Each structure stands twice: as C-alpha cells, then as structure tokens.
C-alpha cells in the first residue's frame, strides 16, 4: 500500500514536472516571439526616427534655400530698381544733352509701333533718309506697344533713335459690344508715349507718325515752317502732313496749304500746351475720332497740305485695311523739294485766312444739277457746287470719287463746310455747305 502510494506520488511529480517544463518552454517561446516583435518594433521606430530626422534636415535645408532665394530676390529687386533709375537718369541726361546742344530743335519725332517689324523697317529707312541731316532738330524715337521681340530687335538695331517700350498688362474692358480691344490699347499707348515725350523728356512739340508711313523730301522743312506758324497763332490746334483727298487725281500744287475744321491725323505735330489740355481727358479708345469732335477744338483748326507729305502703305493693321484700296493706296506723296523757309505763310493766320479763302471761293463759277462732275469738267476754271445736307454731299462726292465720310457733322478736309480738291488738272472744285458762304462773308 505504501509502495503503491509512493509510486503514485512520484508519477504525479513527474507529470507535474513535465507540465512545468512544458509551461516554461511555452513561456520561453512566447517571450522569444515578443522579444523578436519588440526588436522589430524598436528597429522600425529607429528607422522612422532616422527618416524623420532626414526629413527635418531636408526641410531645414529647403528653408535655408528659400531664405537664400528670398534674400537673392530682394537683392536683385534692389539692383533692378537701381539699374532702372540709372537708365532713366542716363536717358534723361542724354536727352538733356541733346537739347542743350541744339536749343533750336523743332520737335521730337515718334514712330508708334506694335508688332510689324517689316513695316517699321520701311518707315525708319524712309525717315532716316531725310532726318539724318537735321537730326539735332528732330530727335527720333520709336515707341513700341507690347513686347513683340522682332519689333524691339529691329528698333534697337538703329543707333540713330531712342527706343521706348510700353507694356501694359492690365485688362481691357470695352464699353460697347463688338468693339475691338486693339483700339483701347492704341489709345493707352498714345497717351503714355506723349506723356513720356512732353513731360519726361520735356519737348515743346512732338510729330507723331505710325509704323506704316513714308515721308516726303520736304517733310521736316514743312514742319519747321508750320511750327513757327503754331507759335504765332494759337488758333491752330495741330499741323498735319495729310490730305484725305490727296489722291493723285485730286491734287496739283505742292506749295498750297489749307486750314481745316477736320483733324486729318496720319503724320501730325502737336504742341505741349495743347497736350496739357488733351492729356487730362484723353479717351479710352478711338482717340482720332475723339479729336475730331468739335467740342474738343474750341474753335481751333488744323493746317494741312494739298499734296501729302506722308504716304500710308499699311494695308494690314488694326483698321483691317479699311479705305486702303480706294483712298490710301492712290495717295500722291510729294516729290518736290519745296523751299519752305522762303515761303510766306502769313495767309494761314486766323485773322487773314477766312478772307483769303473767301476770295478764292467767291471767284469760282457756281454750277448746279445732278451731273455736277460732268459740268465741272467742261468749265475752264474753278467751280463751286452747293450741297444741301449730308446726304446731298455724299451724292456729289460719289460723282467725283472723293471721301464721302463725315465726322461730328464735318466732311473730311472741310473748312467752314467747304471741301476743296483739284479736278482734271489745276482747276479747283469747291463743295459748299448750306451756310458756308454766309460764314465766309460772301
């Protein structure tokens, strides 16, 4: 009994020992697994920490780069402003030096350009042909609107001129549907360029040309003579080198000048005193039509030649070739070297011109009827034809082939409602408005 009990006890001890050993083995295995997992977790954490440190280092480096770039930008901005101020100072000194050397300068000449490099080259070559001998009297500028690289490169290739560039990226809002944005940009450019020449460079007069024009041999002498006229007679708002009815068949005498109530444009000279007035109310678009409004004239008029001193070859442009074939291409560009210095232009003064012009109109033979052009060709001298209103004027103008267009109640080229042109040689035709003779005192 005792031996059996002892054996049973030993057996239980063995079982308990085996179970204990089994438990220990399982505990060891479990601890090993946890240790491996913990090691993996620790290694992962270390890797994360390492990656975090690397990211922090990279971010710090990038922040350092950003700070360095910001400092470099500030420095470059400062250098740019200094260079800009230096250029403006040098430009001003250059212009002052030019004006100091020639106190007798007549006017600055500016060519308004945009994106037609080939046209600009043709214009510059025409101008420089006659400007070079009188360059001190007529400093030459090219003002580009926008950043067309070919135009800038072309302008900068000429050492005889000063280049100006107008870059305006602000949005354009048209006032009426269907309007072309280009006309708004052109108006902005004109104001900027004229402000620059009159107020920055302090010129007393500016001649405005476009990048599609050729000039006549006596272009500069013509403007020098009429500049003196402008100084004496403040009723002259501007001087133009253009005649809207200057086609070959309607002109004859290169020595004749007229006063006009209609602004011709296309190569014109303006004084600073007039610009002081116009600059304050310059329009957002269609500046040339705005200048033709009688309310802006305040009773003043324009000087124009019979034979044009500029030729417009720009079929392609903002106006999309309007009038080019019919009216612009056949224009007669003067080819006579007129000695304007010896010419007496006093007849163009306001106190003399009305009587001077009235005598010419009065001496013309009056004709009437539906076939006015035919009758005019059969008269051996000057004729005058009365029109009743705008539609009647347009009917008669079509018979001869001259401009029919009116602006603000004034036919192109008109003075006191009278439009004059040559017809088949030296004879003049005067189209006379319903109140013209009364206004002329006839």
Automatic annotation (TrEMBL):
Primary localization class, coarse: Golgi
Annotated family: Belongs to the glycosyltransferase 13 family.
Protein name: Alpha-1,3-mannosyl-glycoprotein 2-beta-N-acetylglucosaminyltransferase
Reaction(s) the record says it catalyses: N(4)-(alpha-D-Man-(1->3)-[alpha-D-Man-(1->3)-[alpha-D-Man-(1->6)]-alpha-D-Man-(1->6)]-beta-D-Man-(1->4)-beta-D-GlcNAc-(1->4)-beta-D-GlcNAc)-L-asparaginyl-[protein] (N-glucan mannose isomer 5A1,2) + UDP-N-acetyl-alpha-D-glucosamine = N(4)-{beta-D-GlcNAc-(1->2)-alpha-D-Man-(1->3)-[alpha-D-Man-(1->3)-[alpha-D-Man-(1->6)]-alpha-D-Man-(1->6)]-beta-D-Man-(1->4)-beta-D-GlcNAc-(1->4)-beta-D-GlcNAc}-L-asparaginyl-[protein] + UDP + H(+)
Segment forming the signal sequence: none
EC category: transferase
Domain of life per record: Eukaryota
Metabolic or biological pathway: Protein modification; protein glycosylation
Purpose of the protein: Initiates complex N-linked carbohydrate formation. Essential for the conversion of high-mannose to hybrid and complex N-glycans.
Keywords, ordered alphabetically: Glycosyltransferase, Golgi apparatus, Manganese, Membrane, Metal-binding, Signal-anchor, Transferase, Transmembrane, Transmembrane helix
Entry-linked CDD domains: GT13_GLCNAC-TI (cd02514)
Pfam families in alphabetical order: GNT-I (PF03071)
Compartments (UniProt record): Golgi apparatus membrane
Cofactor binding mode and count: The cofactor is mostly bound to the substrate.
Cofactor(s) needed: Mn(2+)
Topological relation to the membrane, as annotated: Single-pass type II membrane protein
